[in-house]
């Protein structure tokens, strides 16, 4: 049995830099036609020169693979309309991090005050630059995303022409918001479709499933599944594949992030098949992103075959999701 996915897209990806970039970029570049590249490097990407230099390093890391990195800037409150107009040809979106809520988000926004930030949001609306948001407050960990819904609503209502993407949503409340505001969209990760907090820490603590936002309750996972499996037009796949060295995961002070890039398509195919929704995977993993981001991906059909394989325990010094476990679908090759 075979499945062909036409130009899959990963609309939320951490490729890192240096040796890590060289180790991980090939996995996304092999299986996907393109990806939205997160800007939370150290220091973050906030100017065109470093963005283009980073893009060049990504191309060097993916070598001969045909793969489009869709670049993003790290949101700053002092971006001017003039700067944004210059940046527009080089970026697919701008990513807003509240200060300190996740890995390398220092330098993010202290307070999302829609009035104070309105010149940037107005300029982005005018230029049709999408705003991607890491939507968490600094409240109690299980409530952070739900508390952030009020900010999403305020943003959506105040800037109706701004395309807003709620990144890696984890709660049923965020799924509901999609119906309420036309300009709200969302990415959903593989891991949030598969795990709840129980998998992270209900038994023995599993640092490799620790991520931000933390996986939530069963009913939240069900709401995400309902949207993704039925190819809801406003949701798209974004892996949030976020590699960290094993020494940064298996330690006291474990870094947040799940490395899912090498297994993302295989596990998605298995999940969609299990629910009898395999025919909707194309929409979730490519078509919706094209519509939301108004992008035309390179033509890259990816063939998966129903064939068991064992996921390696590590890729260099990074442990992937499903390490040492068997998956039912394998990415075979590209057609062209
Ligand atoms: O788990 C996460 N890891 N969530 C994020 O938002 C950032 C990411 C990272 O960069 O490691
Ligand atoms: Zn992320």
Concise description?
The protein is α/β, with parallel strands linked by helices and 336 residues long. It has helices at residues 18-31, 48-62, 81-87, 118-127, 144-158, 172-180, 191-194, 197-201, 218-229, 246-249, 264-274, 281-293, and strands spanning 2-6, 9-13, 34-37, 68-74, 93-96, 131-133, 164-166, 184-188, 235-237, 301-310, 326-334.
Key traits:
17% strand; 3-stranded antiparallel sheet; binds (4S)-2,6-dioxohexahydropyrimidine-4-carboxylic acid; 12 helices; globular; alpha/beta; 336 residues
Folded structure, characterized:
The longest helix is centred in the N-terminal third of the chain and has 15 residues, at 48-62. The protein has 12 helices and 11 strands. Helix content is 35%, strand content 17%. The two termini are 19 Å apart. α1 packs across α2. The mean pLDDT is 97. By secondary structure, it is an alpha/beta fold. The strands form 2 sheets. Strands 2-3-4-5-6-7-8-9 form an 8-stranded parallel β-sheet. It is globular and about 55 Å long. The chain has one domain (2-334): TIM Barrel (Alpha-Beta Barrel).
Report how far the terminal alpha carbons are from each other: 19 Å
Q: Quick one: how many beta strands? A: 11
Radius of gyration computed on alpha carbons: 19 Å
CATH architecture: Alpha-Beta Barrel
Could you tell me the mean pLDDT?
97
Number of helices: 12
Give a topology summary:
Layout (H helix, E strand, L loop, with lengths): L1 E5 L2 E5 L4 H14 L2 E4 L10 H15 L5 E7 L6 H7 L5 E4 L21 H10 L3 E3 L10 H15 L5 E3 L5 H9 L3 E5 L2 H4 L2 H5 L16 H12 L5 E3 L8 H4 L14 H11 L6 H13 L7 E10 L15 E9 L2
Parallel strand pairs: 2-3, 3-4, 4-5, 5-6, 6-7, 7-8, 8-9
Antiparallel strand pairs: 1-10, 10-11
């Amino acid at each position: 049995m075979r499945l062909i996915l036409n130009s899959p897209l990963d609309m939320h990806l951490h490729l890192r830099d240096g040796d890590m970039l060289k180790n991980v970029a090939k996995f996304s570049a092999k299986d996907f036609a393109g990806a939205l590249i997160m800007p939370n490097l150290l220091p973050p990407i906030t100017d065109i020169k470093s963005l283009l230099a980073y893009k060049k390093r990504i191309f060097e890391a993916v070598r001969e693979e045909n793969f489009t990195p869709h670049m993003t800037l790290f949101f700053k409150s002092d971006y001017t309309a003039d700067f944004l107009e210059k940046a527009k040809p080089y970026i697919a979106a701008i990513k807003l991090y509240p200060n300190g809520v996740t890995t390398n988000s220092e330098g993010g926004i202290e307070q999302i005050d829609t009035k104070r930030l309105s010149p940037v949001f107005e300029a982005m609306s005018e230029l049709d630059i999408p705003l991607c948001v890491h939507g968490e407050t600094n409240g109690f960990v299980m409530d952070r995303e739900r508390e952030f819904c009020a900010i999403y609503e305020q943003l959506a209502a105040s800037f109706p022409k701004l395309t807003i993407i709620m990144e890696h949503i984890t709660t049923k409340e965020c799924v509901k918001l999609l119906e309420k505001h036309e300009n709200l969209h969302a990415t959903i990760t593989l891991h949030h479709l598969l795990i709840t907090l129980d998998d992270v820490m209900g038994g023995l603590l599993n640092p490799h499933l620790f991520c931000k936002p933390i996986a939530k309750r069963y009913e939240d996972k069900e709401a995400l599944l309902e949207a993704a499996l039925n190819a809801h037009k406003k949701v798209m796949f974004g892996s949030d594949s976020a590699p960290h060295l094993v020494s940064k995961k298996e330690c006291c002070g474990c870094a947040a992030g799940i490395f899912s890039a090498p297994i993302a398509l295989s596990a998605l195919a298995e999940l969609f098949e299990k629910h009898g929704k395999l025919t909707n995977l194309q929409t979730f993993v490519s078509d919706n992103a094209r519509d939301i981001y108004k992008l035309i991906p390179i033509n890259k059909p990816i063939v998966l075959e129903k064939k068991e394989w064992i996921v390696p325990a590590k890729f260099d010094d990074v442990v992937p999701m499903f390490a040492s476990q068997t998956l039912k679908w394998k990415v075979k090759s590209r057609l062209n």
